[in-house]
Amino acid sequence: MTQLDLLFPFALPPQELARDLLRELKAPSLALLLARAKPAAASSNDEFSRALPHERWLAQHLGLPAAQDNSSPPLAAGMLRAAGIDAPDGFWFLLQPANFHIARDHLVLTDLRQLALSEQEARTLFDSAAPLFAEAGKTLHHVDATTWLLRADDWHALQTSTPDAACGHNIDIWMPHGAQARDWRRLQNEVQMHWHAHPVNEAREMRGSKPVNTIWLWGGAAANAQNDSAKFDTAYTSGDPHAPFAAAAGAVHIDSVEAVCSSQGQYPLLFLDDLLAPALTGDWAEWLVRFQAADERWFAPLLEAVRAGRITRLSMTFSHGTATASYRISKSALCKFWRAPSLSRLSA
């Protein structure tokens, strides 16, 4: 392996908290890599973009077609292929079991990771909802506990949002928009009514878990959509390989940098999702804990791999809710001893 692309979402703290968080953050290996790296690229998103910056970055590197009308990345075709579903035509969406909770005067989408939905629970809820979609002339496929696939050819113009972009916000802004939005809402409401007092949710609430009280639609794409060539030939993730973006990339879960360095691929991608959950819920104490663990687990061995020449070029992309920043470093750059280790570039 000669080079590695690394994506670390939410490693850039919010600007209003950056000074305090970076003062507390202890990440010496990343501090050295950042101080001696060369800035490579930067991008920014509107705060109401229907996908987060790192999701746009992933979509681009997957070679996905550009999303239409500020919609979520068209991930469904890749998910169909990853799930082994033979669908030569039609327009498909990702459909995910979800939870809405009540804020002062509006509903908010809960981070889907908090549901911890079991396969048995998901299958039972799927079997309850499937007839409703069939009656509406829609085809629904169960992929796994967190993700289903829906064929809805007449909804192709809907503007949808990724669940992570919508998480923690008033759903009215982030719900599907377009000519068929009313049809979607009607079907969504029917599912919500069927699940309101469902035994699965009663059991979940009895043990203190959040109910699965709604569904989230996004990622629409034509089944036969043709992608450009991906910018990587192997993908690895520190998180769930079945999560939509990871699954579409064909990512394999790994626990160490050694697994990446042993890769047969020439252009591997390493996706670290360690900070997603605490950042999306605003748990900055947990963010610090996980970041410092990531420095020990990932960046310390990455630094050694660059120093030893096992990785000849390391490209690191960091993000927060509205921007990305990328840096590149090689073995020769580590010799710039006059550049003291610093995390200041994370405040960009």
Fold and architecture overview:
With 348 residues, the chain is an alpha/beta fold. It folds into two domains: 3-59 and 230-347; 66-222, 2-Layer Sandwich (Alpha-Beta Plaits), CATH 3.30.70. Helix content is 36%, strand content 20%. It has helices at residues 15-24, 28-36, 53-62, 76-83, 119-135, 163-166, 171-174, 181-196, 199-206, 244-248, 257-261, 276-281, 284-307; strands at residues 3-8, 38-44, 91-98, 100-102, 107-109, 139-142, 148-151, 214-222, 234-237, 252-253, 268-271, 313-319, 323-329. The protein has a seven-stranded mixed sheet with strand order 2-13-12-1-11-9-10. α2 crosses α13 (284-307) and α5 (119-135) crosses α8. The chain starts with a strand and ends in a 19-residue tail after the last strand. It comes from Oxalicibacterium solurbis. This is Regulatory protein, RpfE type. InterPro entries: Regulatory_RpfE (IPR016631).
Topology:
Layout (H helix, E strand, L loop, with lengths): L2 E6 L6 H10 L3 H9 L1 E7 L8 H10 L13 H8 L7 E8 L1 E3 L4 E3 L9 H17 L3 E4 L5 E4 L11 H4 L4 H4 L6 H16 L2 H8 L7 E9 L11 E4 L6 H5 L3 E2 L3 H5 L6 E4 L4 H6 L2 H24 L5 E7 L3 E7 L19
Parallel strand pairs: 1-11, 1-12, 9-10, 9-11
Antiparallel strand pairs: 2-13, 3-7, 3-8, 4-5, 6-7, 12-13
